[in-house]
């Protein structure tokens, strides 16, 4: 499993970013994909997930602001983040599992992409 996240950066509150995760080493279309984040001084938390049937899940704090999508032809999962808040500042990671999976047991993390929301 190889996951490469990109698209992070510094953005002002209220701004937008689109994260991408390029996946390889497994049958992408057969796996649910998720995004997790780790804020400074905090543990990893699931943010969003997309299932093989295109069903989606979001943690409460990002509902209505973030949208997850996938392109099976490109083996890529995306996270569109709008109306960003300072509390969204974190390193964002993707994972080839459902967001119900015990996050402490997942061990295929990529390098992540830093998102900083600040004025």
Q: What tags apply to this protein structure?
A:
single chain, about 120 residues, mainly beta, six-stranded mixed sheet, four-stranded antiparallel sheet, globular
Record the SSE blueprint.
Blueprint: E1 2-6, E2 9-11, E3 17-24, E4 33-38, E5 44-50, E6 56-58, E7 66-71, E8 76-81, E9 90-95, E10 113-117
Parallel strand pairs: 2-10
Antiparallel strand pairs: 1-3, 3-8, 4-5, 4-9, 5-6, 7-8, 9-10
Structure overview:
The protein is mostly beta strands and 119 residues long. The protein is built from no helices and 10 strands. The chain has strands at 2-6, 9-11, 17-24, 33-38, 44-50, 56-58, 66-71, 76-81, 90-95, 113-117. The chain has a 6-stranded mixed β-sheet with strand order 2-10-9-4-5-6, with no helix packed on it. A hairpin with a 5-residue loop joins strand 5 and strand 6. The radius of gyration is 13 Å and the shape is globular. The chain starts with a strand and ends with a strand. The mean pLDDT is 96.
Brief overview, please?
This protein is mainly β and 119 residues long. Helix content is 0%, strand content 46%. It is globular and about 40 Å long.
Percent in helix: under 10%
Q: How many strand units?
A: 10
Topology as a string of helices (H) and strands (E): EEEEEEEEEE
- Portion of residues in beta strands equals over 45%
The major sheet is characterized as:
6 strands, mixed
Low-confidence stretches: none
The helix count comes to: 0
SS-derived structural category? mainly beta
